[in-house]
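Q: Please design a sequence for this.
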């Protein structure tokens, strides 16, 4: 089967089928017959499987690994292409075929198409790899940004806690200072009362001492008066 036949049977566009054939030729068992490459019937499910895997978002390397597990590989050993005997040219013909230019143009077009398909496939793989690396880098950058934001929030919370504790201490000191200022008048009154009581206590002690002296003097006078009265009355002592 030609690639055009496979494209019609599978519904895969011809350029896409040509790209699949260039990328996964080891699984398609294609054989060169002149200028064309022919494929067996067994290649049809391989083309369909490749299209299915690309449709699932698989990359070329993954598809090759999966095909290696599902389908046999055909590896060419020896010359890149088989040699075919060309028909002999009659001796009377001394000129080249008239369609030689067309033949060479078609052969060159097929070779360029295959090379271009291979280059585009490799370029696509490179883009897929770069896309995967970019996705990984984007994920790492996102994680780094989250960590940075987390550290910033943590620092802010620590600073807020420190400021709040300091503010609480300042508020407590202010309250104590207010209490001390409110207690100063009371302390002054208490000091004045204490001084007054101390002074009054000293006066009372002095008065008590004077009264004791006066009381002792009165006792002495009484005893003398009693002695005089006894002497005057002639009573025995």
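A: Design:
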């Amino acid at each position: 089967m030609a690639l055009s036949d496979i494209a019609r049977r599978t519904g895969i566009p011809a350029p896409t089928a040509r790209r699949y054939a260039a990328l996964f030729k080891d699984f398609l068992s294609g054989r060169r017959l002149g200028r064309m490459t022919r494929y067996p019937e067994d290649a049809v499910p391989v083309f369909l499987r490749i299209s299915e895997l690309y449709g699932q978002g698989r990359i070329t390397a993954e598809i090759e690994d999966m095909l290696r597990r599902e389908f046999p590989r055909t590896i060419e050993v020896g010359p890149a292409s088989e040699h075919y005997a060309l028909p002999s040219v009659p001796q009377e013909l001394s000129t080249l075929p008239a369609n030689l230019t067309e033949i060479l143009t078609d052969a060159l077009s097929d070779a360029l198409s295959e090379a271009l398909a291979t280059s585009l496939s490799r370029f696509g793989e490179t883009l897929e790899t770069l896309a995967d690396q970019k996705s990984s880098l984007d994920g790492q950058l996102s994680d780094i940004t989250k960590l940075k934001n987390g550290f910033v929030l943590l620092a802010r919370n620590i600073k807020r806690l420190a400021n709040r504790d300091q503010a609480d201490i300042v508020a407590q000191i202010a309250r104590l200072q207010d209490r001390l200022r409110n207690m100063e008048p009371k302390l002054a009154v208490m000091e004045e009362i204490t001084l007054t009581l101390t002074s009054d206590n000293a006066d009372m002690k002095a008065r008590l001492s004077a009264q004791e002296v006066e009381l002792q003097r009165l006792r002495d006078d009484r005893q003398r008066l009693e002695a005089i009265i006894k002497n005057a009355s002639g009573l025995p002592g």
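Q: Thanks. Anything notable?
A: The radius of gyration is 61 Å. The chain has a mean pLDDT of 78.
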